[in-house]
Design goal:
Blueprint: H1 3-45, E1 50-56, E2 63-70, E3 76-84, E4 101-105, E5 110-117, E6 125-133, E7 142-149, H2 164-184, H3 196-218
Antiparallel strand pairs: 1-2, 2-5, 3-4, 3-6, 6-7
Length: about 230
């Protein structure tokens, strides 16, 4: 074999080994990145995300409700929430937040509780801290901290009921109140009743008209018999 051919064969072998090594390294890195992304997606697919907000009451927008909702795709356990400054409610005997802890929230589940009138809250700014466990048997807690700036919704308005179910309930309530007035006798129903006397009156009118037509046909002049 000529020397130059042996030399060329050696160079080709070295270049081939180098290309194989580079390709292997690149494939290893791509495989590692794909594995990390797959793990991250699987982790996010079952991750809970609990959010706490203050919203107007569905029956009266001048009152506020505390809403706790799991917007994630996994179940949250042992949920703990805190407001700074603390929230106060008219239905509690002390200054504690009406809801400070929940045992469990399924994905998409929402828990609500009446808080107070909305007006005193509209000038406040709260720091909300929410934490939870993904596994009820684990000591590892996850959580978020964010700012709830109430002046952002100070100029909020609404036209008509916020929920069709509320409008339907109000209409049923008015119907029930009207019917109670009728049942108690404080109001009377005006009804146009078609009774047996009305049927007898119509039959008599029909009989008179029939007899009139018979007399007109029997009369030679085509007019009614004066007798």
């Amino acid at each position: 074999m000529p020397e130059w051919l042996a030399y060329s064969s050696t160079i080709i072998t070295v270049l081939g080994a180098l290309v194989t090594a580079v390709a292997t390294t690149f494939l290893w890195r791509v495989t590692g990145t794909l594995a990390e992304e797959t793990k991250r997606m699987a982790d996010a697919a079952g991750r809970p995300q609990v959010v706490v907000t203050l919203e107007d009451n569905r029956w009266a927008m001048n009152h506020a409700d505390l809403h706790i909702e799991n917007t994630g795709s996994g179940t949250a356990y042992d949920i703990v929430l805190a407001f700074d400054p603390p929230l106060k409610t008219k239905i509690a005997s002390d200054d504690r937040t009406p809801i400070e802890r929940l045992s469990v929230l399924k994905p998409g589940q929402r828990f609500s509780s009446y808080l107070s009138e909305f007006a005193p809250l509209l000038s406040m700014r709260f720091t909300v801290t929410v934490s939870w466990r993904r596994d009820p048997n684990s000591n590892v807690r996850e959580g978020i901290t964010y700012v709830l700036n109430m002046p952002d919704v100070a100029n909020k308005g609404r036209l008509g009921p916020s929920d069709p179910a509320v409008e339907l309930a109000e209409q049923v309530k008015r119907i029930r109140e009207d019917w109670q007035s009728v049942a108690s006798g404080s109001k009377r129903i005006k009804a146009d009743v078609y009774a047996s006397s009305d049927r007898l009156h119509e039959r008599r009118q029909w009989e008179r008209a029939r007899r009139q037509r018979q007399r007109e046909r029997q009369s030679p002049t085509g007019s009614a018999d004066p007798s």
